[in-house]
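// run 5 | inverse folding | seed 20
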């Protein structure tokens, strides 16, 4: 398995990138499998490249940045196991060679307007849009795989490539879950048993919301489950799925594609999750580019 630190070390001619910050788990491997499949079906010489880069511009807390797991050799072995062609692990200087390269990313409205992740983590999506633009350029990415777990990120990157008229197609991959429903995340390793059990309130609340007849009743059901578990949400909302805004006044429920989204801190870990609303109406998986 090639571990490249510079773009010149990658095979030229285009690839499918799976952007990650490392600390890979089973959920990531599903993204990598999709990347491998997409690279083979597009016959791209660069194959599937997994980027492992802990991006300093998207962290709002220095502590979170510092403790983010860094284990590139182990990550590379996992990627090799599912057929990836290379791991791209650039330095901060390679991604951001000048102070200017850290500024002014193209940002779609969904990255700053909905008042969800954007409000809870100011500046986060500016950092995500910036690093994705840089990683797509550096790897000559013709397609990129993103997990649905970070729903606002997926919508932001999808809208960003449209704004940029970028040749990078965005491929969405469904959320991987533990058998009890907890969405997989690199941060789950910091949950103790008690907090992990409380964290289940996110997925259970989303399931409860998904059985209600109106978005208002769904939000109430979601909040009730969080409340019982003692989880104070940063947000718990049911919105239009791609803009993440409340739909226009008077819009009929059936005319809107909805998504229920939730985030909150459990112990020292911030968890987020989302599901289609009502449940069973997921038409969003697959290519979004
Ligand atoms: O989802 C992540 O792990 C990160 O936000 C990403 C897309 C790799 C950008 O740093």
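// decoded
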């Amino acid at each position: 398995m090639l571990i490249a630190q510079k773009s010149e070390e990658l095979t030229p001619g285009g690839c499918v990138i799976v952007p990650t910050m490392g600390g890979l788990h089973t959920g990531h491997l599903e993204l990598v499998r999709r990347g491998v499949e997409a690279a083979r079906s597009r016959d791209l010489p660069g194959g599937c490249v997994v980027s492992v880069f802990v991006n300093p511009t998207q962290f709002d807390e220095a502590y979170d940045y510092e403790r983010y797991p860094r284990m590139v050799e182990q990550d590379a072995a996992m990627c090799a196991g599912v057929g990836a062609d290379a791991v791209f692990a650039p330095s901060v200087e390679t991604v951001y060679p000048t102070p200017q390269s850290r500024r002014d990313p193209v940002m779609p409205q969904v990255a700053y307007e909905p008042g969800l992740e954007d409000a809870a983590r100011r500046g986060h999506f500016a950092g995500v849009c910036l690093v994705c633009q840089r990683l797509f350029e550096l790897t000559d990415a013709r397609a990129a795989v993103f997990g649905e777990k970070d729903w606002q990120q997926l919508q932001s990157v999808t809208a960003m490539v449209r704004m940029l008229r970028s040749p990078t197609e965005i491929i969405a991959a469904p959320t991987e879950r533990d058998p009890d429903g907890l969405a997989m995340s690199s941060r789950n390793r910091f949950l103790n048993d008690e907090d992990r059990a409380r964290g289940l309130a996110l997925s259970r609340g989303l399931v409860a919301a998904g059985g209600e007849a109106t978005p208002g009743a769904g939000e109430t059901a979601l909040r009730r489950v969080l409340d019982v578990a003692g989880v104070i949400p940063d947000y718990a909302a049911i919105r239009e799925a791609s803009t993440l805004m409340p739909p226009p006044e008077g819009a009929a429920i059936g005319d809107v594609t909805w998504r229920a989204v939730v985030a909150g801190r459990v112990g020292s870990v911030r968890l987020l999750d989302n599901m289609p609303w009502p449940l069973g109406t997921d038409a969003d998986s697959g290519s979004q580019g």
